[in-house]
Amino acid sequence: MSNQVNNTDKTNPVTSTEHTITDTTGRFTMAVQDSQQVAEISWLEGRIILSNQSLYLIGETGKLSVGFSEITTLSGQTEPAQTSGGLSKYVRIEYGNDVLIVSPADYDTFRKGLYTATIDGEKINCKHPAVRGGVVQAVS
Question: Which segments carry the region annotation Disordered (predicted)?
């Protein structure tokens, strides 16, 4: 895995310039590595730490750090009909030429924290064209 954390504290890789938002356990895997889809996905169990600047995945084989400035796309799934590797609640994180799939034990808290942290706490307002009870249609 790229972006290995070289921190002497094995239990908490979060640096002194950041603070922990959530610290949970779960499963994670690399789905795409160096722009190539991974042929055989192998899930790792471990700690998932979310700070205000980075995501840390800590497994038996090492640590991976992904800074929020590296993330290009976030998406997720909560519907059982569209599972990834048998998981129905997961977050898909694209950064550089890699894609991570992360399935934390406390999915809802982690997801909310991740989206909030990656937009740096800013609120984003979206205007939706539908009227209550209406159907979204193209505006001409």
Answer: 1-21
Residue 51 CB burial class (10 angstroms; 0-12, 13-18, ≥19): buried
* pLDDT given for residue 126 in this prediction: 64
Which class in CATH covers the domain with range 20-118? Answer: mainly beta
pLDDT in tens, 80-109: 544 455 566 899 999 999 999 999 999 989
Residue 118, SS3 per DSSP: helix
Q: In terms of C-beta density within 10 A (0-12 exposed, 13-18 middle, 19 or more buried), how is residue 59 classed?
A: middle
**Cβ-defined contacts of 112-117 (< 8 Å, 24+):** 113/21, 113/22, 113/50, 114/50, 114/55, 114/74, 115/74, 116/21, 117/21, 117/50, 117/51, 117/52, 117/53, 117/68
User: What is the separation of C-alpha 99 from the centre of its chain, rounded to a whole number of angstroms?
Assistant: 10
| Burial (Cβ within 10 Å: 0-12, 13-18, ≥19) of residue 64 | buried
